[in-house]
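Researcher: Checking consistency across runs. Here is Flagellar motor switch protein FliM again:
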Amino acid sequence: MTGPNTALAFMVRPCKPTRGARHILLEDIADGLFRGPAKLGHGIDLLVRDAQAQSFPQAKALSLIPDIAVPHVLDGPNGTRGLLVFDGTLIDALIEQQTLGRISAAPRVERPVTAIDAALSTGFAQAVVGKLAEVSVDRRDASALAGYNCGAPQTDRAALSLAMSERSYDVLTLTLDLGPGLKTGTAVLMFPAAIDPAKPVRQQVNPDMVAALQDSELHLRAYLPSVRLPVKTLLGFDDGTIIPLPDGILGRAQLCDRRGVTLGKGRLGQLGGHRAFRLNGAPPPAQTPTVEMDVPPPAALPKEALPEPLPDMGEDRVSPEPAALET
């Protein structure tokens, strides 16, 4: 039997948690971080029943903090901050152990946390952070967790959001048994997310595409440097007008594609009766140099001013594979 949202349920897939070496490390050291300080410092036979670590964006990480809880800010190196959070049940157990000498099996009475709760839980938070410092020295893979100190509790969620300003956090969530048949509390430990070095992405080359590109035709054009003419001379142009060019201009030609991108520079000449271009250097600067010249009006040009034919480069003066041009 299917309902109206069946198709949507099939399309929506839950996101897989983001996990790495840091998360495995946090889960591995979780028991030692909490059991030893609880037993030696507070006489509590604490047992870590479950420990799960993964990365979350900042907003999602802070949303994992229980509504009734005392967050202890951890001041880290270079201005970084972590967080150690005890939920209301764990806070009650710590207070009962310190005031009554035992933990009651009675269920927790729902109430907001107070400054007294924060003060009486600070000792355990300091003990956990002290154990973390020992672990970061004993284990080489935990060195990135070194340098954190237990700061002041911060129960104001708005101020806590401003203090925890990293983009993402590695979050360790623990379920703690506080004695056989007694209370079960929750603790949350978070640090700025570890950044794994980016792995180089191997470029996949399609050999068929490379071959097709190499076989494709590229249309090239050769250009002589631009010249400037008076407007009155330009207005006097007619069919058969001769424009004299400065000496050496053939040796300053440019080879360009259809977009006008300069591919090289060289000399314009002839080879076997055809126009030819000899490359002789790297591409010229982006701006093409211009030649200032005053050209007399076309009517005043004598017959001797007619340009000579393009020089023939000869077989021995042209590179083995000259670049042919469109005509």
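Researcher: Does this match what you'd expect to see?
Model: One thing to look at in this run: The longest helix spans residues 115-138.
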